[in-house]
Design a protein that fits this description.
Blueprint: E1 17-24, H1 33-38, E2 40-47, H2 56-63, H3 65-73, H4 75-90, H5 98-122, H6 132-140, E3 144-149, E4 152-157, H7 164-175
Antiparallel strand pairs: 1-2, 3-4
Helix pairs in contact: 4-5
């Protein structure tokens, strides 16, 4: 039906396989009319990973539907990063000129990378998995000032800020990381 229907995939490679996964919808999910009627959520993905390879072990792995499903689900991380990049300014290009937009995209990618490293190395719990807007609001918008004295610099953070302890914990985690090299 996929290859011969009115909107079929006649021109697609012969080794293309479309695999459907059926799962119960989680509470609060927005379902299509078909999904509401059936009570299931359907997810389709296409793969051209060959059905058979020379080595026997690889054949079992690549033909294993659970492996192919896990491979497909790993792309959700990529989609999350794209969504985060869009929230970090990737969709708000400032100009019609290529050079300015190129600089904007570079700054946006740098900001996204720095925020991802902050989450990976300095945060724990729910903040480690939080969206960029949440991290910005809780950690980067805090009232603080940099104070010099006794030949040292200190960061004085507003103690009434609800996430002060999370920010201090993140700073300490990053400070104890070994120096590169």
């Amino acid at each position: 039906m996929i290859r011969t229907g009115p909107h079929g995939l006649k021109d697609w490679p012969a080794d293309l396989r479309v695999i459907a996964r059926r799962e119960r919808a989680h509470p609060g999910a927005q379902l299509s009319l078909f999904e509401q009627h059936a009570g299931w959520r359907f997810h389709l993905f296409a793969t051209n990973i060959p059905r058979s390879l020379p080595s026997g072990h690889a054949n079992r792995v690549l033909n294993n539907l659970a492996y192919l499903d896990a491979l497909d689900r790993s792309h959700a991380r990529v989609e999350d990063r794209i969504r985060c990049a869009k929230s970090m300014g990737l969709t708000r290009l400032p100009s019609h000129g290529f050079d300015r937009n190129k600089a904007w995209m570079t700054a946006s990618a740098l900001a996204q990378t720095l925020l991802a490293w902050l989450a990976q190395l300095g945060l724990d719990g729910e903040l480690a998995k939080a969206e960029p807007d949440t991290i910005r609001h809780r950690l980067l918008h805090v009232a603080a000032k940099l104070v010099r004295g006794a030949r040292r610099r200190r960061l004085e953070i507003d103690q009434t800020w609800p996430w002060t302890t999370d920010l201090v914990r993140a700073i300490h985690r990053i400070q104890v990381l070994p120096a590169p090299g």
